[in-house]
Amino acid sequence: MTTYDSRPGLHADNLSPPPLWVCVLLGIVMILAGFLVLGDVVLVTVISTIFIGTMAIAAGAFEIIHAFWTKGWGGFVWQVLLGVLYIALGVVVVSQPVASALILTYILGLLLLISGFVRILLGFSHWRSAGWIMLLSGAFGVLAGLVILSGFPMTGLWVLGFLLGVDLISHGLAWLTYAWQPAARPT
Protein backbone atom coordinates (compact mmCIF):
# COMPACT_ATOMS: atom_id res chain seq x y z
CA MET A 1 0.00 0.00 0.00
CA THR A 2 1.36 3.38 -0.97
CA THR A 3 0.51 6.54 0.86
CA TYR A 4 1.35 10.06 -0.10
CA ASP A 5 1.94 12.93 2.27
CA SER A 6 -0.44 15.69 1.26
CA ARG A 7 0.31 17.93 4.20
CA PRO A 8 1.56 21.39 3.36
CA GLY A 9 5.20 21.74 4.21
CA LEU A 10 8.64 22.32 2.92
CA HIS A 11 9.14 20.74 -0.48
CA ALA A 12 12.21 21.08 -2.67
CA ASP A 13 10.01 22.43 -5.47
CA ASN A 14 9.04 25.46 -3.40
CA LEU A 15 12.56 26.48 -2.38
CA SER A 16 13.93 29.64 -3.86
CA PRO A 17 17.60 29.75 -4.82
CA PRO A 18 19.96 31.43 -2.38
CA PRO A 19 20.81 35.07 -3.04
CA LEU A 20 23.81 35.92 -5.20
CA TRP A 21 25.91 37.11 -2.27
CA VAL A 22 25.42 33.81 -0.39
CA CYS A 23 26.57 31.78 -3.42
CA VAL A 24 29.60 34.02 -3.94
CA LEU A 25 30.49 33.96 -0.23
CA LEU A 26 30.21 30.16 -0.07
CA GLY A 27 32.32 29.83 -3.19
CA ILE A 28 35.07 32.13 -1.92
CA VAL A 29 35.15 30.57 1.55
CA MET A 30 35.35 27.04 0.14
CA ILE A 31 38.10 27.97 -2.32
CA LEU A 32 40.12 29.66 0.43
CA ALA A 33 39.57 26.67 2.72
CA GLY A 34 40.71 24.37 -0.08
CA PHE A 35 43.95 26.29 -0.55
CA LEU A 36 44.45 26.33 3.22
CA VAL A 37 44.01 22.55 3.31
CA LEU A 38 46.43 22.11 0.40
CA GLY A 39 48.98 24.11 2.39
CA ASP A 40 49.55 21.18 4.76
CA VAL A 41 47.95 18.01 3.41
CA VAL A 42 49.71 15.74 5.92
CA LEU A 43 48.24 17.61 8.90
CA VAL A 44 44.80 17.64 7.29
CA THR A 45 45.07 13.91 6.58
CA VAL A 46 45.73 13.23 10.27
CA ILE A 47 42.94 15.61 11.37
CA SER A 48 40.53 13.97 8.90
CA THR A 49 41.41 10.54 10.23
CA ILE A 50 40.83 11.67 13.82
CA PHE A 51 37.49 13.16 12.74
CA ILE A 52 36.48 9.87 11.09
CA GLY A 53 37.39 7.99 14.29
CA THR A 54 35.45 10.44 16.45
CA MET A 55 32.39 10.05 14.22
CA ALA A 56 32.69 6.26 14.48
CA ILE A 57 32.70 6.55 18.29
CA ALA A 58 29.64 8.82 18.19
CA ALA A 59 27.83 6.49 15.78
CA GLY A 60 28.62 3.49 18.00
CA ALA A 61 27.33 5.24 21.10
CA PHE A 62 24.16 6.21 19.27
CA GLU A 63 23.73 2.63 18.03
CA ILE A 64 23.96 1.29 21.60
CA ILE A 65 21.54 3.94 22.90
CA HIS A 66 19.20 3.14 20.03
CA ALA A 67 19.34 -0.58 20.91
CA PHE A 68 18.14 0.14 24.44
CA TRP A 69 15.63 2.72 23.27
CA THR A 70 13.92 0.37 20.82
CA LYS A 71 14.27 -2.92 22.66
CA GLY A 72 11.06 -4.33 21.23
CA TRP A 73 12.20 -4.06 17.62
CA GLY A 74 14.38 -7.18 17.74
CA GLY A 75 18.04 -7.56 17.04
CA PHE A 76 19.02 -5.98 20.36
CA VAL A 77 22.23 -8.01 20.75
CA TRP A 78 23.28 -7.29 17.17
CA GLN A 79 22.71 -3.55 17.59
CA VAL A 80 24.74 -3.47 20.80
CA LEU A 81 27.50 -5.54 19.19
CA LEU A 82 27.56 -3.25 16.15
CA GLY A 83 27.74 -0.21 18.45
CA VAL A 84 30.63 -1.72 20.40
CA LEU A 85 32.47 -2.49 17.13
CA TYR A 86 31.99 1.09 15.92
CA ILE A 87 33.34 2.42 19.21
CA ALA A 88 36.30 0.03 19.14
CA LEU A 89 37.10 1.04 15.54
CA GLY A 90 36.82 4.72 16.46
CA VAL A 91 39.12 4.33 19.48
CA VAL A 92 41.75 2.56 17.36
CA VAL A 93 41.53 5.20 14.62
CA VAL A 94 41.76 8.11 17.08
CA SER A 95 44.63 6.54 19.02
CA GLN A 96 46.62 5.64 15.86
CA PRO A 97 45.72 8.32 13.28
CA VAL A 98 48.78 7.91 11.05
CA ALA A 99 48.46 4.12 10.77
CA SER A 100 44.71 4.53 10.25
CA ALA A 101 45.30 7.10 7.49
CA LEU A 102 47.58 4.59 5.77
CA ILE A 103 44.92 1.88 5.97
CA LEU A 104 42.14 4.22 4.78
CA THR A 105 44.28 5.40 1.87
CA TYR A 106 45.12 1.83 0.86
CA ILE A 107 41.42 0.91 0.91
CA LEU A 108 40.62 4.04 -1.11
CA GLY A 109 43.24 3.06 -3.71
CA LEU A 110 41.80 -0.45 -3.99
CA LEU A 111 38.24 0.88 -4.30
CA LEU A 112 39.25 3.37 -7.00
CA LEU A 113 41.06 0.65 -8.92
CA ILE A 114 38.19 -1.85 -8.72
CA SER A 115 35.44 0.68 -9.44
CA GLY A 116 37.51 2.02 -12.35
CA PHE A 117 37.71 -1.43 -13.93
CA VAL A 118 33.96 -1.92 -13.44
CA ARG A 119 33.23 1.47 -15.07
CA ILE A 120 35.49 0.58 -18.01
CA LEU A 121 33.56 -2.67 -18.53
CA LEU A 122 30.27 -0.79 -18.26
CA GLY A 123 31.53 1.80 -20.72
CA PHE A 124 32.21 -0.89 -23.32
CA SER A 125 28.88 -2.61 -22.73
CA HIS A 126 26.94 0.68 -22.99
CA TRP A 127 29.06 2.24 -25.75
CA ARG A 128 26.10 3.35 -27.89
CA SER A 129 24.53 5.36 -25.06
CA ALA A 130 27.53 7.60 -24.28
CA GLY A 131 29.55 4.73 -22.85
CA TRP A 132 32.75 6.61 -23.68
CA ILE A 133 32.04 8.90 -20.70
CA MET A 134 31.87 5.89 -18.40
CA LEU A 135 35.03 4.51 -20.02
CA LEU A 136 36.85 7.80 -19.45
CA SER A 137 35.64 7.93 -15.85
CA GLY A 138 36.83 4.37 -15.32
CA ALA A 139 40.22 5.16 -16.80
CA PHE A 140 40.63 8.06 -14.35
CA GLY A 141 39.57 5.79 -11.49
CA VAL A 142 42.09 3.13 -12.45
CA LEU A 143 44.81 5.76 -12.87
CA ALA A 144 44.03 7.31 -9.47
CA GLY A 145 44.00 3.88 -7.82
CA LEU A 146 47.32 2.96 -9.40
CA VAL A 147 48.90 6.27 -8.33
CA ILE A 148 47.77 5.72 -4.75
CA LEU A 149 48.77 2.06 -4.59
CA SER A 150 52.09 2.39 -6.42
CA GLY A 151 53.23 5.18 -4.10
CA PHE A 152 52.04 3.46 -0.95
CA PRO A 153 52.84 3.98 1.95
CA MET A 154 53.96 7.56 1.22
CA THR A 155 50.65 8.39 -0.47
CA GLY A 156 48.89 7.47 2.76
CA LEU A 157 50.31 10.57 4.37
CA TRP A 158 48.92 13.08 1.90
CA VAL A 159 46.16 11.64 -0.30
CA LEU A 160 43.21 12.19 2.06
CA GLY A 161 44.19 15.80 2.73
CA PHE A 162 44.88 16.45 -0.96
CA LEU A 163 41.48 15.04 -1.99
CA LEU A 164 39.75 17.17 0.66
CA GLY A 165 41.53 20.30 -0.58
CA VAL A 166 40.69 19.61 -4.23
CA ASP A 167 37.08 18.83 -3.27
CA LEU A 168 36.74 22.11 -1.39
CA ILE A 169 38.16 24.10 -4.31
CA SER A 170 35.94 22.37 -6.88
CA HIS A 171 32.90 22.82 -4.65
CA GLY A 172 33.74 26.50 -4.25
CA LEU A 173 34.11 26.90 -8.02
CA ALA A 174 30.75 25.18 -8.47
CA TRP A 175 29.11 27.71 -6.11
CA LEU A 176 30.70 30.61 -8.00
CA THR A 177 29.56 29.15 -11.32
CA TYR A 178 26.06 28.70 -9.91
CA ALA A 179 26.06 32.30 -8.65
CA TRP A 180 26.69 33.70 -12.10
CA GLN A 181 24.06 31.64 -13.89
CA PRO A 182 21.24 34.01 -14.88
CA ALA A 183 18.56 31.43 -14.06
CA ALA A 184 19.97 30.91 -10.54
CA ARG A 185 19.49 34.50 -9.39
CA PRO A 186 16.30 35.31 -7.54
CA THR A 187 14.25 38.06 -9.13
From TrEMBL:
Transmembrane segments: 20-38, 44-69, 76-95, 101-122, 129-152, 158-180
Signal peptide limits: none
Keywords, sorted A to Z: Membrane, Transmembrane, Transmembrane helix
Domain of life: Bacteria
A cellular component term, taken from the record's GO annotations: plasma membrane
PANTHER family: PROTEIN HDED
Protein name per the record: Uncharacterized membrane protein HdeD, DUF308 family
Organism: Bradyrhizobium lablabi
